[in-house]
Amino acid sequence: MSSQTPAFGALCSRLASLVARNAWDEVDLACDERLAIDSRDPEALFLKAGAAYGRGDLGTARTFADAAFAEAPDAREIAEFLAVICSLGGDIVSASYMAKLLNVLPANQALAEALPPDLPSFSQVFLNIGERPLYESGCKYFIAGQWNVAERLFRQHLAFEADHRDSWLALGTCLGLQGEWLPAIDALRSGRQILPYDPHIASALAMMLFRHGRFVEAEACHAAAIALAPQDAAIAALALAHRLADPHSRAADMAPAFATWADRFGGTGTRSRPLAEDKARHVVLCVVAGMGATSQAAPLADMLAKLDPRRYKMIGVGRGPLMDQANAPFQAPFDGWIDLNGMDPITLRRSMLGQRADIILDFAGFGCVETTLALSQPLAPVQLAFPTQPFDIGTGYTGRLVDADSPADDGVLPRIALSGGTAYAALPSDDLPLASEGGEQVRFGIDADITELHPRIIERWAAILRTVQNSTLLVFDRDISVPTNSARLLELFGDHALVGLIEIVSEADRASFMSQIDILLQPLPPASLDTTLSALWAGVPAIVPAGPFACKRTTAAFLRHAGLGDECVAADLEAYVALAVAWATDAPRRETFRAGIRDRLRQAPPFDTDRRAQDLGEALGRCWAQALEHQPADPA
Q1: 39 — pLDDT class (breaks 50, 70, 90)
Q2: In this structure, what are the phi and psi dihedrals at residue 401, rounded to the nearest 5 degrees?
Q3: Please, is 46 exposed, middle or buried when counting C-beta atoms within 10 Å of its C-beta (0-12, 13-18, 19+)?
Q4: How many other CB atoms are there within 10 angstroms of residue 102's CB atom?
Q5: Per-residue pLDDT at 247
Q6: Cα distance between residue 41 and residue 1, in whole Å
Q7: Pairwise CA distance, residues 633 & 636, whole Å
Q8: What is the pLDDT of residues 275-310, one digit of tens each?
Q9: Partner of 410 at 20 to 30 A CA spacing, among 27, 36, 324, 627?
């Protein structure tokens, strides 16, 4: 449609007063009525673009303005609007092109009066144009934790640069952090349509599918990502980590998969440095990357600080400077620090070798791909893996620190049992509430996100609810109240006709939720130790499945070391149901448990950091002695 036809501008003239008052809802309503008759009406599209700008949505404004210009390419005001919007969005090429048109296109007064009142001129914005301003603003809001604002900005940027990979990844991450797994999946699928050969988008999509409990689809996307980037160790590692958390995985399948990963990306080597038999002080490297913000950091650091400083010089390996807030818990125990940020595996390996460590303790495990690759080769006479390194990786490790009763399904490395276990936790505050006394109704509780809700464990929860009369299941609202997630929850429980027994509970914190339930049911694989400890501290027995293989039995092992194995740990899912039913049908036992559990935990060995430091020191001494015994003979 030509902007010079007599009728062109009539709608803009009619709505100019609404535009002047920023009455965007009324403008939208009038334009929608026009578009219902003619979906390509350029005036209606132009006015909707102005309304979107008025609401601060540059992406939608660009979309409508492009559509309007396609229908009326000789409308100067639409070109001017696009020049301004493209400048604000950082699209210099499009902004310059539209600006050139302004010199040849005729003006239309009616359209000029329909421009938003606060729209700057092209000359004002072009002088200050920046590269990807919407994306950069989104990143700032993302860092500040304002993910909903960041999400909107990333979406808007994609309207200007649809093939910007980092915006697609950031958008998916923002949605995921808000528990919006299905929208995240949809967004990343759109990204894959535009960038079908980008392995990082395929990997991110796999992550979101996994988080929504769609394990088969996630595995297919992981396979696609690996095919696109066969030499990317991190992409392959994420696929392995997700397989490890899949409730259907078996140790017999996982161990070879980890060995294959190590063969492909790791390295080999021999320990050639001779050992000093009379060495008085050992250099110990502790890999704690990514652990500073976890609940394990403080008790782990406390324990490491209690190792004899005359015998051990402690050096940490983590992300960022030691003085960063994220690493604050580790400032006490370490005499030195290696910041792995920005290091490739070869540089990191050289940096670690430069410390001439005698002993390396890998607390971070497979959660840190960079150190896993570095440690797949021998870097010290003694290199010890914790359960966070779930299976044997390369030739670097000399042994595995394990819980005393953990199954030997994690490889062939020598196993060094720690009497206090391998998990670290601090006692919660005494100020946190105890659970209220139960009534006639038994209140089961679950504290799990949508990823952990899968048919295998739902079937057991349904069996418990059917067996225990007058019972209900309270669900702590992590991300369940998100409409797509609550629909998934209802779908899973609807298969068992138990929707009426489910109640989603929104509380400010976990402790408040635990104070409302009688029994906590943990998912499979078991959720974090934090969740279990929070329930126990509230006086609530926690029913914990032992876990499918050693690296998933940390919570169960911790409970056994605390003297709670028989009361809380189920060897299999049949025992899980029986244990939950037994607690539910014995109210006096629950009351006795509630009254005495805090004193029991205070005296439990896992919380005795002095004893645990002594235990670890003795284990390190044994490992050093074995290394001396088995070191290669001196060629001379």
Answers
A1: very high
A2: -80, 125
A3: buried
A4: 14
A5: 77
A6: 9
A7: 9
A8: 666 678 899 999 999 888 888 899 999 999 999 999
A9: 627
Q: Are 503 and 474 in contact (CB under 8 A)?
A: yes
Read out DSSP for 488-499?
Answer: HHHHHHHTTT-G
Distance CA 20, CA 18 (A): 5
* Cα 150 to Cα 586: distance, rounded to the nearest angstrom: 50
Asked whether the beta carbons of 3 and 79 are under 8 A apart, the reply is no
Sheet holding 471-476, edge to edge: 502-505, 471-476, 442-446, 519-521, 542-545, 569-570
Q: How many angstroms separate the CA atoms of 400 and 415, rounded?
A: 5
Question: What is the average pLDDT across 151-156?
Answer: 94
Distance between CA atoms of residues 585 and 518, nearest Å: 11
Instruction: Encode burial over 500-539: b for 16+ CB neighbours within 10 A, e otherwise.
Output: ebbeebeeeebbebbbbbbbbbbbbbbbbbbbbbbbbbbb
478 in helix, strand or coil? coil
Contact yes or no for 287/364 (Cβ under 8 A): yes
Three-state DSSP class for residue 176: helix
**End-to-end alpha-carbon separation of the chain, Å?**
92
Both tokens assigned to 530: 């934090």
**Residue 5 reports pLDDT greater than 70:** no
Task: Look at residues 497, 499, 517, 498 and name the one whose alpha carbon lies nearest to residue 507.
Answer: 517
DSSP string of 75-141?
-HHHHHHHHHHHHHTT-HHHHHHHHHHTTTSPP-HHHHHTS-TTPPPHHHHHTT--SSHHHHHHHHH
Mean pLDDT confidence for 407-423: 74
The token pair at 33 is 């009525």
Place of tokens 């976890």: 294
% helix / strand / coil in the chain, to the nearest 5? 55, 10, 35
Give 399's DSSP letter.
E
Half-sphere exposure for 442 (CA within 13 Å, toward CB): 25
pLDDT greater than 90 at residue 392: no
